[in-house]
Amino acid sequence: MKRRKGYTLVELLVAFAIFAILIVPVSGMINTAIRGNKSSKEKLELVNIFNYAYESYLNGDVKFQDNNFIEIDYMDNKHKIKFEKVNQAEYQMKGIDYNSYDLVLKVDGNELQLLEGNKKLDAKLLEKEKRIENREKVKNRVFIKVTSEKSAFKYEIKINKIRENDDETFTTLPEEVLDKTISNPSGKLLIDVNNTDYNINFLIDGVYNGNGLEDRILAVDYKNKPSNVNLASVYPNVEFIEETATNSLDKNQRVEYVKISIFKNSDLNNPLNEKIYEFSKIQK
């Protein structure tokens, strides 16, 4: 019996049904990726606006007049920033909980420690100049790289050090590494500096996925940072946040608590986000 060429109506209907079943999850994945990218972009935009608002108030570009609030336009003319004075009760300064971070990098004297919660995982010794005139030549460079692996973050902390020798020469020491993989990461780090006069530069490299950078925000909190410890990032999605305490003010300082709210110009009744900051200022 000779078979006819082509497909029957039933075969075509079955093929279309299978195609429809397969295309639904694919389109869902595409839509999820688009929503994820849009969400990351919006979060990064908010970080930039908050940084701008914080610096504007800190530098004195924003000043309260007769009212306890003031509004300004952001540079993109799409957002409005509201500054409002609040009391200390609203601020609710809390102690820092190490367990709320993926990892803690603690500088304690001449040691850089890696902690998970309150558990000390590892530590490396730091270098200090022998003569004060060589302070800028003796370095402790700490590079922080994060690799995204499925539902985990692999943190690599690479330490490059330059030592001053007794004969007034300098030696670049072999690289040392601290590393730890964190499941279900929050993307939050804490750098806690405790009474050190060592020269340390922290550089946040970024969040990598394969060979490319991932659009993921990292929050890096820091506490007790002196001028000899520097923080920087080559990765745009890093939010540096200073954790301060209210009991270390000089007698000539006063504390202000300011709530900063971000609005879209198209909806001035519902803020996109709000944060309360503590500012300490010198009394004149």
Write the layout of secondary structure elements.
Elements: H1 9-58, E1 69-73, E2 79-86, H2 88-91, E3 103-108, E4 111-116, E5 119-125, E6 140-149, E7 152-164, E8 170-172, E9 176-183, E10 188-194, E11 200-209, E12 212-213, E13 218-223, E14 229-233, E15 238-243, E16 253-264, E17 273-282
What structural category arises from helix and sheet content? alpha/beta
Q: How many domains make up the 3D coordinates? A: 2
Shape: flat
Q: What's the N-to-C terminus distance?
A: 105 Å
User: What is the H-and-E element order?
Assistant: HEEHEEEEEEEEEEEEEEE
User: What about the largest sheet?
Assistant: 7 strands, mixed
Strand content: 35-45%
What integer value in Å does the Rg equal? 26 Å
The quaternary state of the protein chains shown equals single chain
- Unreliable residue runs: 91-95, 245-252
What is the number of strand segments?
17
- Helix percentage range: 10-25%
What are the salient characteristics of this protein?
284 residues, alpha/beta
Tell me what the structure shows:
This protein is an alpha/beta fold and 284 residues long. The chain folds into 2 domains: 9-93 and 245-284, no CATH class; 96-223, no CATH class. The protein is 19% helix and 44% strand. The protein contains 2 helices and 17 strands. Strands 6, 7, 8, 9, 11, 12 and 14 form a 7-stranded mixed β-sheet that branches. It has a 6-stranded mixed β-sheet with strand order 5-4-3-10-13-15, with no helix packed on it. Residues 91-95 and 245-252 have low confidence and may be disordered.
Question: How would you sum up this structure in a few lines?
Answer:
This protein is an alpha/beta fold and 284 residues long. The protein has helices at 9-58, 88-91; strands at residues 69-73, 79-86, 103-108, 111-116, 119-125, 140-149, 152-164, 170-172, 176-183, 188-194, 200-209, 212-213, 218-223, 229-233, 238-243, 253-264, 273-282.
